[in-house]
Structures are given as structure tokens and as C-alpha cells.
Design brief:
The protein is of the alpha/beta class. The protein contains 20 helices and 21 strands. The longest helix is centred in the middle third of the chain and has 16 residues, at 192-207.
């Protein structure tokens, strides 16, 4: 369904043009996250009523409170891409001139998908730390407010049979949920044991996930009744502002805010859209400067938000145990990658969202593995094991993330695996409820054929046809093809034939996502993109260092377009 951003609201600054000495009017539209919109609107009204102008032309500002996921969907539609979990809005979606999302991670995600999306400014105008919200009786059991917990402590409580019932707002749609997921992933560390812990935490969060923040809020206990406390959500990553707003309603059971170290902030970047002309861009700069005035911090305080440097305005009522406001909390914004994105890149975000998607989104995937002779090459950055070995490890990791809502099949390909045919089926696409053991066993069969070539074109076409012929509604139907080389099958079809056949097969009613994961420097990105571009959707992902294939695999699940690492 198309999501239309309705830029509703009152036009501000309609003073008499003659009295103000203006020659006209510049209308600036602003889409702001709902919690900050009232403060921005008041500041804009003060600015425009004071005679704001650009070279003698008065400025009028329209501020709308819009969920960041809705605006992100509209931006995605404008650039012909989609984001995991939110898709893209319809062609009629209207974009604002300025977007104040709650986190710079939205800008990072969009820029990773749409190269043409390059907003300017990006300076943070507010901040709200991401906390773990707990009903106060539960928080007291874990030592609040005296004991200081870390994300690692929380991870342990989530995965060791503790009675903590965790919840989260879908991190593909919610910045606080994403920040919490990233923090937990960082606390898990690396290695097989850490990955198992991370998967356990993801499954625990997924069991209590909500698509909307208001829905999650309803899952907290409404009374001190023991049964109510035991069945309700007892811990969830939310923003400090969420906790302040919840407690302002005077519920019977208040929420405690646990500030885990490190404490990631939501940073509210002021992003001027790339389509904005120079006149509106100048007006936007004037508005942003107005939001840097001391009085704006007081407006933020009334909304439960901090200034961009972590300090607070008059009347700020922080939760019990909130850290002392200090300018030291500020992290400098860098272009459109502000405080929430400090130290992050789109790859890190896509990997964690790929893990989330594998666990929460039902899918059908045919995994197709290259077993040509070059897969015997050693990988120095992975202890000199073979490319086939690192691929097996990545496949096992991916399988562990996929729950029983998935259906998976496995093929192998080289040259002449079944007579002249370059591919062979090991396990047909089957529900993991019944075939998980068989799929796991098939991974051990990813053993290279000495001197075998790469029958890429015939295999890609056959795999696409197989997924389309067995297509199921309500799932993402995909081919996940892993290869370390270029087509070398002299007895097979050529590239032109493959492209023509894929274009003929394209069916909007039965879309198949073609994802190719290139392993090592021997792949030809242009060749692989020629294949994926001929299909309805998908992308090419290159692991220049084969040791990073596991990371690339998670990115491939999450992202629509390709990446090189």
C-alpha cells in the first residue's frame, strides 16, 4: 500500500508582507519526528514572527509531525529503492524541504541504497539517550537505581533462562530499537559462542517485538498484580523521552530508565533534502540557526528532549538515575552522519538488520554454492583455510539465524557435475521444520571439484526458474548464489542468452530476488551485475576478503542493492 506523507499543519509567519517590507514569500516545509515537532513549530513561529527573510523575501514555515519511517518510505520511493521492513511509499508521496528524523541512522540507511540521496547540513538539533525501560518493580530486582548495568549484563540476563521478558519496537522501523540491537550486537563480541549468544538474544527480542511504539507501550504492566507483572514486557530499548512521556501519564506502574554503558543517543539531524533549491536552502539554514538559540533548549525540555550537546533546558524532568547533563555528552556531527551514527556505517547497520530479517521475516531461498577448483584457494586472513571452508562457516551461521518459518534448498555448481550439466541439487527447497538437519548436512558437501570450472550462466538461469516455478505468496522468494569466479562453461549458454531469458521470465506477480555474493578478487562485478539487473530485484555483494563473507551474507539479506567490502 502506498504511504503518502501529508504535510499538514498551519502556515506560520503570515505577517503583512507590506508591513515587513517583503517582496514575496518562501514557503518551507519541515517533516519532524512527532516528539520534536511541537518544539520546532514554536521556534519556527518565533523566528518568522520576528521578520525572518532571505534577501528581502519573507519565510513561512510549515512543520508537520511525521513518523520517521513514513518519511523514509517516501524518500525511498522518490529514489526507486526500498528499505528492509518499510519498503517504499507510492509515487504520489510528497517530500518535505527539511527532514528532522530522530536519528542519523535513517540517513545512513537511505544513502546506502540510493546514491542520489545526498542531503545537506545534518547538524544535530536535539538528543535523547537510548535506555532500557523497565517497570520500576522489575528494575529494583536488578539493582536499579544504585547498580550500573552494561549491555553485556543485559545480554546475559536475556539468554541464561532469566525471567526477563524483553520487547522491542521493530528495529527496521524504529531508531531506538535499532540502537538497542546494535548495542547488544556489540556486547556479544565475535566468535562462534558469541554468535550463538547473539542469536539467542535476537530470538528473545523477536518474541516480544511490536511494529509500533504505542503497541509496545501497551505491553508494560498496568498494575502491581503479580500475574500482571509476570506476563508483561519487563525490558525494552526505548528513548529517554519515551520514558518521560510514559510516566507523565501517571501510570500505576512507572517505568525506570536504565542508562547502560555505552549509552547511544538519538541525535535528531537537521537534513535539507537534495531537491531543495538555493533560496529554500538559505531559508532552511536560517531555521536551523534559530533552533540553535538558547530558547530552543527550553522548548526541547518541555518535550522531554535534551539539547544536541546533552545539556537540558529549564523544566526538564529527567527520569530517576538519569546522568548529569554535561556538554561532554556531545559527539560532533559529520555531514549527514551525526551523533547516533558516530562509529557506524551502513554496512554495520545492514548486517544487524540482516540478522533481524533472517529471524523475523519468512522467506524461501535457494542457496547455490560454487564448488569450482578455485574454491580450494587459501584465505590468509582466515588462518589459511580454503574459500570453501569460510563459505561453509558463513552458510552455517546464516542457517542458525533462520527460524522454522523459512524454507531453504541447496544446490552446488561447477562444470560437468551431472553429465554436461554444471549444477546439481543437494536438497530441494523445503520447510526448515522438517529439513533443517538435511540442510545442515548439505553444507558439509560444499567441497570443491579439483580443476572444475565455473558454470555460472546455466546455473543462474536454472536456479531462477526453480524458485519461480515453486514460488509462494507471502514470502520473499530468493536465489542466493555464492561464486568466486567468472563463467567458464564452454558447453553452456552465453551471457546474452542468459540476460534475454531472465528478462522473459520476469513476472511481477511472481517476483524472484536474485542475489549474487562474490568471493575474493577473481569475480567480475560487471558480469554479476549484468545478471542481477536482468532479474526483477536483487543485487551483487563482493567480499574482496573472503574471510568477510559472513558479514556480506547478512548485508545481502537486508539490503536491496549491492556492496563491496
Amino acid at each position: 500500500m502506498a504511504i503518502v506523507v501529508v504535510l499538514a499543519g498551519s502556515w506560520l509567519g503570515y505577517q503583512s508582507l507590506a508591513d515587513a517590507g517583503c517582496s514575496g514569500q518562501i514557503k518551507l516545509t519541515v517533516a519532524a519526528a512527532t516528539e520534536i515537532a511541537p518544539a520546532v513549530e514554536q521556534a519556527a513561529q518565533q523566528w518568522t514572527s520576528g521578520g525572518a527573510n532571505v534577501n528581502g523575501t519573507c519565510v513561512a514555515v510549515n512543520v508537520s509531525g511525521v513518523n520517521p519511517a513514513t518519511t523514509a518510505s517516501a524518500v525511498a520511493a522518490k529514489h526507486g529503492v526500498s528499505l528492509t521492513g518499510i519498503g517504499s511509499g507510492g509515487k504520489s508521496s510528497v517530500l518535505p524541504d527539511v527532514w528532522i528524523a530522530d536519528s542519523s541512522t535513517w540517513l545512513l540507511r537511505l544513502r546506502s541504497e540510493a546514491s542520489g540521496f545526498v542531503p545537506t547540513d545534518g547538524k544535530s538539533v536535539a538528543q535523547s539517550p537510548v535506555v532500557i525501560a523497565m517497570p520500576e518493580p522489575i528494575a529494583q530486582q536488578v539493582g536499579w537505581p544504585d547498580k550500573k548495568l552494561t549491555w553485556k549484563d543485559l545480554l546475559q540476563k536475556m539468554t541464561t533462562g532469566n525471567s526477563l521478558r524483553t520487547g522491542i519496537v521493530d528495529p527496521t522501523r524504529d531508531s531506538a530499537g535499532l540502537a538497542g540491537l546494535l548495542a547488544l550486537g556489540g556486547a556479544a563480541g565475535g566468535g562462534p559462542e558469541a554468535k550463538a549468544t547473539q542469536v539467542g538474544a535476537l530470538r528473545a527480542l523477536a518474541a516480544g517485538s511490536s511494529s509500533l511504539r504505542d503497541d509496545l507501550m501497551q505491553k508494560f504492566p498496568r498494575s502491581l498484580d503479580a500475574a500482571d507483572l509476570a506476563s508483561a514486557v519487563s525490558a525494552a530499548p526505548l528513548s529517554e523521552e519515551d520514558v518521560i512521556a510514559y510516566n507523565a501519564e501517571r501510570p500505576q506502574v512507572k517505568l525506570a530508565a536504565l542508562y547502560l554503558e555505552p549509552t547511544p543517543p538519538l541525535d535528531y539531524p537537521f537534513a535539507v533534502m537534495p531537491e531543495v533549491d538555493l533560496t529554500k536552502s538559505a531559508a532552511a539554514t536560517g531555521l536551523r540557526e534559530a533552533l540553535q538559540q538558547p530558547g530552543f533548549k527550553n522548548l526541547l525540555a518541555s518535550a522531554g528532549l535534551r539539547g544536541p550537546d546533552g545539556t537540558v533546558g529549564a523544566g526538564f524532568a529527567g527520569p530517576v538515575g538519569a546522568p548529569q547533563p554535561s556538554p561532554a555528552a556531545e559527539a560532533p556531527a559529520t555531514g549527514t552522519e551525526g551523533t547516533a551514527a558516530a562509529g557506524l556505517d551502513a554496512s554495520s547497520i545492514n548486517q544487524v538488520l540482516g540478522s533481524w530479517a533472517a529471524i523475523t521475516l519468512p522467506g524461501r531461498a535457494l542457496a547455490v554454492f560454487d564448488v569450482s577448483g578455485s574454491m580450494l584457494d587459501k584465505v590468509p586472513t582466515a588462518g589459511n583455510v580454503t574459500r570453501a571452508a569460510v563459505t561453509r562457516a558463513a552458510a552455517s551461521q546464516g542457517l542458525s539465524l533462520m527460524d522454522d518459518k523459512w524454507a531453504v534448498g541447496v544446490w552446488l555448481f561447477s562444470t560437468e557435475l551431472v553429465g554436461k550439466r554444471p549444477w546439481k541439487q543437494v536438497v530441494p527447497i523445503s520447510p526448515l521444520t522438517s529439513s533443517r538437519a538435511a540442510i545442515q548436512d548439505s553444507i558439509s558437501k560444499i567441497t570443491p571439484k579439483e580443476n572444475g570450472g565455473t558454470g555460472l550462466y546455466d546455473t543462474a538461469l536454472a536456479a531462477y526458474k526453480n524458485v519461480q516455478d515453486t514460488w509462494q505468496a507471502g514470502r520473499v522468494n530468493s536465489v542466493l548464489l555464492f561464486t568466486d569466479g567468472q563463467n567458464e562453461n564452454k558447453d553452456g549458454i552465453d551471457q546474452r542468452t542468459l540476460v534475454n531469458e531472465l528478462k522473459k521470465l520476469a513476472d511481477p506477480k511472481r517476483p524472484v530476488r536474485m542475489v549474487i555474493i562474490g568471493i575474493g578478487p577473481g569475480v567480475d562485478r560487471t558480469e554479476l551485475e549484468t545478471i542481477t539487473n536482468a532479474s526483477s530485484s536483487g543485487g551483487v555483494f563482493i567480499a574482496q576478503d573472503p574471510a568477510k563473507i559472513g558479514e556480506i551474507f547478512l548485508e545481502a539479506i537486508s539490503s536491496r542493492t549491492g556492496a563491496a567490502r
